[in-house]
Design a protein that fits this description.
By secondary structure, this protein is an alpha+beta fold. It folds into 2 domains: about 70 residues, Glutaredoxin (3-Layer(aba) Sandwich); about 130 residues, Glutathione S-transferase Yfyf (Class Pi), Chain A, domain 2 (Up-down Bundle). About 55% of the residues lie in helices and about 5% in strands. The chain has 8 helices and 4 strands. It has a 4-stranded mixed beta sheet, covered by helices on one side. The radius of gyration is 17 Å and the shape is globular. The chain starts with a strand and ends in a 10-residue tail after the last helix. It binds glutathione. Glutathione binds next to α1 and α3.
């Protein structure tokens, strides 16, 4: 199996972290998103959305990081995607929660408009409103994550064992580092982040994005504090 990806991409890191941490038999093929490789053929035939990651399993092409994680876990019989109906439903619920609730307001509302020119809003006013909205909504979601999804007792998102939801949710939450987000007001999130950072593949998978975060140090961003 081959994963088209780039470690500067949040959704690629979600999959790459799981793959590397669990020795899933997948080879990484870097797509140079900085030179626009994903905007040109042959990549656009592979994924007309012009987005990474993309999985190629012997000609079966799959997009969407959340779906790729579930496919890889199921295909390899990983216990990190439990087979029991309600346990699996909880993992699916949590992944959907990150993808559609937190990521929308935190990634696309708060973080990306401040660091990526292609996400910046066309006027100062619309930029300000977008980022303020993103921050307010993110704070709401992060409180839910802290108080209810993780809570004071759980080690991982869906209980005491790690699941693919943790890899997915971690990649999304961690990207706040690029604008200097701190989670001291969310102690359960903070504890969970530290637990995930102790995983064997963390350093290698997150090296590129941490380098990017370092390059932005000193700039003023609206962030979670
Ligand atoms: N819903 C998709 C989102 C994929 C996505 O947004 N990928 C970004 C990188 S994180 C990308 O390819 N961006 C290239 C661009 O916007 O030009 C998934 O979860 O896989």
């Amino acid at each position: 199996m081959k994963l088209y990806m780039h470690l500067a991409s949040t959704t690629s890191r979600a999959v790459a972290f799981f793959v590397a941490d669990n020795n899933v038999p997948v080879t990484f093929q870097t797509v140079d998103i900085f030179s626009g490789e994903h905007m040109r053929e042959p990549f656009t035939s592979l994924n007309p959305n012009k987005l990474i990651p993309v999985l190629d399993d012997d000609g079966f092409i799959l997009t969407e990081s959340s779906a790729i994680l579930k496919y890889l876990a199921e295909k390899t019989g990983s216990p990190l995607y439990p087979k029991e109906l309600q346990k699996r439903a909880r993992v699916n619920e949590t992944m959907d929660w990150f993808n559609s609730n937190l990521y929308r307001d935190y990634g696309y509302g708060l973080i990306y408009p401040q660091v990526f020119p292609s996400h910046k809003r066309p006027s100062e006013e619309s930029q300000k409103v977008t980022v303020a909205w993103g921050k307010e909504k993110s704070e709401f979601w992060l409180k839910v994550l802290n108080d209810h999804i993780i809570g004071p007792k759980r080690n991982f998102l869906c209980g005491d064992a790690i699941t693919i939801a943790d890899y997915f949710g971690f990649a999304i939450t961690q990207v706040g580092e690029v604008i200097g987000c701190k989670f001291s007001s969310y102690p359960n999130i903070d504890r969970w982040l530290r637990t995930m950072e102790a995983r064997p593949a963390y350093a290698k998978t997150f090296e590129v994005i941490k380098g990017f975060a370092k390059s932005l140090e000193g700039q003023k961003f609206v962030a979670i504090t």
